[in-house]
Design goal:
Layout lengths: L4 E4 L3 H12 L4 E4 L7 H4 L23 E2 L15 E2 L12 E7 L26 H5 L9 H15 L2 E2 L14 E2 L5 H10 L7 E2 L37 H7 L3 E4 L3 E7 L5 E8 L2 E6 L3 E3 L2 H11 L24 E8 L14 E3 L15 E5 L9 H8 L4 H11 L3 E8 L8 E9 L5 E6 L4 H21 L6 E4 L3 E4 L29 E3 L15 H16 L1
Amino acid sequence: MRADAVIVGSGAGGAASAWALTRAGLHVLLLEAGPRFVPARDYPLDTSDWERRPFPAPKGSRARIRYGDLGGLDPGDASLQSWNAVEGRTPLPARRVPSRSGYAHVLGVGGSTLHYVGEAHRLHPESFSQARDHGAGADWPLSYGDLEPFYAQAEALIGVAGPVEAGARWRSAPYPQPAHPLSPAARRLAEVGARIGLPFVANARAALSRPRDDRPACNYCGQCSRGCPIGDKGSADVSFLRQAEATGNLTLIPEARVTRIEMARTGGVAAVHYHRAGAAHRQETPVLILAAGAVQTPRLLLASGGADLPEGVANGSGEVGRNFMETLSWHSTALLPGLADSHMGLPADAVCWAENAPGAVPGAVGGCRYTSAVHETGLTGPAAYATRLLPGHGTALKSRLREAFGSAITVGATGAVLPDARSRITLSTEESDADGLPLPVIHSVLTRNSLVILHHMARKARSLLRETGAGAPVEEFGSWDRFTATHVFGTARMGRDSAASVTDAWGRSHDHPNLWIADASLFPGTGGGEAPSLTIHALALRQAMRIAG
C-alpha cells in the first residue's frame, strides 16, 4: 500500500503522531506489534474475582525481555529493603533483581497507556536545563516554552482534569476539565502535608471529570491500571487513535511485528519489514517514525545494522541503547485507625510537587514528588490486605480484615535518575524471539545519586505517615532491591551535538533524514518523577507539525 508515513508503535507517541499527521491530510500506516484490546471483554471489573484479575495479557501482548547488570546491594542501605507484614523480611540478595512485573510494557493498540494510571504531567521547566544549572545529566535541546502549546493541545484532546493552581508549570490556558475530588486517604495526606512543608494538590489526571467526546465521566472505581472498561481514561486508543481512524487517512495493522529497517543507498530509510499471521511483509515509506518505547526502539535500531552500519541504524554517535534511565520509586503503607474507605476514589489523585525541581533533594541532583498511592499499590480489595498487610489465618484474620479494611494509607514517591554508562539496552547474543530478532537486555544500575534520592524519599514518606497518626508501616517497597519500571527513558536521546545524541530537537535522526523517533527514548533526562506520557504526546505533536510542514 502507499503511505506518506509509517509509524511503528501505537502508544503515547505513535498515537499522537498518527492523529496529527492524518489531520494534516497524510496517509499513515501504523504498525502495532500487539493485539487490539476490547474494553468490555478484556477489562471485566464486575465479576466476583475482579481483585485476582490484573491487567490482561492476551497472546502477543508482552514482549520477551532479558536482564543484565542491575547492580549490587550494599547492606548499609538495607533500610530500603522491600517487605510486608505477611511475608516479613527475606534475606538480602547480593544483587538487585527484577520484580514480578519487571519492565511493565504492553504491546497492543494504545500501548502502555492501556494500563497506565493516567497521570498527565508537564515536566518542571527547570528540568530542561539541569546540566547547565546543576552540572549533572544532560540538557534538552528545547525549552518548556517550546513544548507548552503542545502540552495544552494534548491535554485538550485527551481531556485532562487538573487544579486551578499552575505552580511552577506556567500555562497558556487552564486545564480543560475541573479537578477530581480527593479520596479519603488523599484528604488526610493533604491535611498533614501542609504542616511539614509538603503540601498536596489535586493531581493532573487523564480521566474525565465531565463527559466529553462521547466518553463518560469517571465512575471512581479506582482500577485504572486494570484497564478502563467505560472509556473515561484518556488512553491512546479512545482518544488519539479513535479520532485518527475517523479521518479515513489511517491504516492501523495490529499484530504486525517489525523485524528490520531497510536502508536505501542514499542513506535514508527505504522500507520496514514486518511479520504478521505467519507471513513476511515489506513496506516502503518516505518517512519512518519509531515509537516503540525506550527498550524496543533501540533494539530495532541496533538489530537493523549491516555491513554499511555495523553499529546499527542511526548510531553514528554510538549513543543508541545508552543512557537508559528508569524512575526511582518508593512506597510506604500503614494502617490509620479511624480512616474509612481508602480504597475509593481515583489512583494518584493528590500530588506534592514541593521537591520536584532538580536541586530540591539535599546532596543530590534531581527532584522527586509524592502521591497518595493506595490504589497504585493494589490495596483496593480484601485479598490484598489478607496477603500483604494482615498476618494470621482463620477466624482471627477474618475479624482483623473486617476491622482494618479501608484504613490503609500509602505514600508513594517517584524520583529522578541520571544517565550512567553502565545503564543501557543491548542485544542478547544467546536468545532471539520467534521472528529471529535478538532479545533486548536491560542493564540498570543505581548510582550514589539515586541512593541519596531513594533514602530521602523513604524518610519523607515515613514522616508523612507518622504525621497522619498511622501506626508503624506494614508494607514498604521500592527500586533499591527490585527493578520495577513502567517509565523508562533515554536510549536514543535528542540533543544539539550529533556526536553525543541520536536525534535533533525535533526527534529527527542526525544520520538519516527520513527517520524520526517519537517516544521516551528521546528524553535526555527523567524530570523529577513526573509521569512521561503527556511529554511524549507533546513531543510527537510538535514533531508531526514539522513533518507535515
